Amino acid sequence: MGRIEKFEDLEVWRRAREICEYVEELFLTTPLGANFSMRDQMDRSSGSIMDNIAEGFDRDGSKEFHNFLSYSKGSASELASQAYRALDSRLITQQQSEILRSKCTTVKNKIGALMHYLRNSDIKGQKFKKD
After folding, report:
1. Cα–Cα distances in Å, from 15 out to 73, 103, 111?
2. Phi and psi of 116, rounded to 5°?
3. Which stretches within 32-126 are classed as H helix?
């Protein structure tokens, strides 16, 4: 793997973006798109996953990044719960719910691994480098 210079280089951010794309596909192809309350909640939580990864990365400090990754991981759990709610409301199918929850689990695991790395790394972030 090459040097990570921008948040777009992070696999975990790219995976989070894929979740947003899948959620948008569900909005366009299922009754979920017409349930504005559920749609809004799922749109916000899915976007929060990738947005917090990006924001934390550009804070330039590993502790801040770790905090934002924690928020992102929480949003992934929130979205997984919403997948159950959408299924129980018959807005998406069992298979669609499983796919979404699987994507959330994958990204949560990757976020957790990155958080573990940050906790155990000597790298403190760009803002702590001496010129």
Report:
1. 12, 8, 10
2. -60, -45
3. 36-57, 62-88, 94-120
Copy the structure tokens of residue 9: 């280089």
**In this structure, what token pair is assigned to residue 88?**
């129980």
The yes-or-no verdict on residue 66 having pLDDT over 60 is: yes
Is the CATH number of domain 10-121 1.20.1440.60? yes
pLDDT digits 0-9 by tens, 76-112: 999 999 999 999 999 999 999 999 999 999 999 999 9
DSSP 131: -
User: Domains of the chain: which residue ranges?
Assistant: 10-121
Write down the residue that tokens 């129980």 correspond to: 88
Helix (H) or strand (E) holding 90: none
